[in-house]
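To start, one record:
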Amino acid sequence: MAMHRLDSETRRELAHLLYSSMPLVGTISAAAVVIGTVMAWVAWDPGYAVITAVLLVIGAFRVVKLLMFAARFERLDHDDIIRWELFYGIGAAAFGLAVGALSVRAFQLGDSPGIWMCFGLSMAFCVGIVSRVSPWIVMTSSAVLLIPTVIACLVQPEPVYRMGAGMVVLFWITLRGTSYRLTAAFTERIMAQQALVRQAHQDFLTKLPNRAAFIAELSGCDRPVAIIAVDLDGFKLVNDRFGHQAGDELLCQVGARLQDCLGDTGIAARFGGDEFMLLLPRGGRDAALALAESAVAALAEPFTLAGTRVQIGASAGILVTDDRQAETEALLDQADRALYAAKRAGGQRCCWADAEISVSSAWTHYDAVPALSPAG
């Protein structure tokens, strides 16, 4: 799966996995510096010393970036995630290039122990980075590491080095396939986890948030907040006359209309059956009343079900509260009591929770039986 096709949440989780490699990065960086230092001390070679110093700087840069990412992760948006992925790729490629340079220097000096140590370091780096879930980073950093080694092997007169170069190329090809398979597996797992989270917080029929999601959102809201309980008038008659499939379609259309009434100002949730809840963060009485009237008026407009126009109605209970100590369930109960007061008053109207004063309907009152007419 191409990284640019991933949704922002999946890419965010993959980036988190990418940056969860502090032990790996720290260990491989320390090992590279130790190996480079030993090689420079034994051979007394300034080339080794310079490359080892570069490895130390790059390793420190990568560790610092890992710490910074962990500290800022919760505040990062989609564009930030892409930039941090780029930082990780640059750091990994620079480290791979430096290890490759160390290997080339060992070939130039004919340092057999150094060649073997660099080879082991290269394999450890490649095996470690393949578990990172960004194929372009894996392929780029392993290529800049292994290409210098392959070239150095090819220019050696002994046939065994040419055979070694071929084996390194095959290893890189295998690395590529493994990287893509691991990325696909991680992506599928993350998307499955996200689907489970959505199912736990989403109504299966209307795709609106469910009761659990609504309560979680309400619990995190600053006060004041407006809660509007909405219940359909005449929904059972639709189920009885047209069947449950038509009733399900009606509920989906109701959910869409309620979400349109809210826009981006709040959330609409289905609590079960034909009961819905609207949440208006920082909503005052005027805004709450306007939203409730808009919702009831919208649900009084005809619906089209299987070629037939159906008109029902809706009632609403309104609660506006700035009580920060109030229990969430108590707030919902107050909104529900106001809703049923509106239904007892005849339906298709709003009622305030604090006074149960009905608001006169500005829309037409329909009979209890849904009005039917052909679509068109």
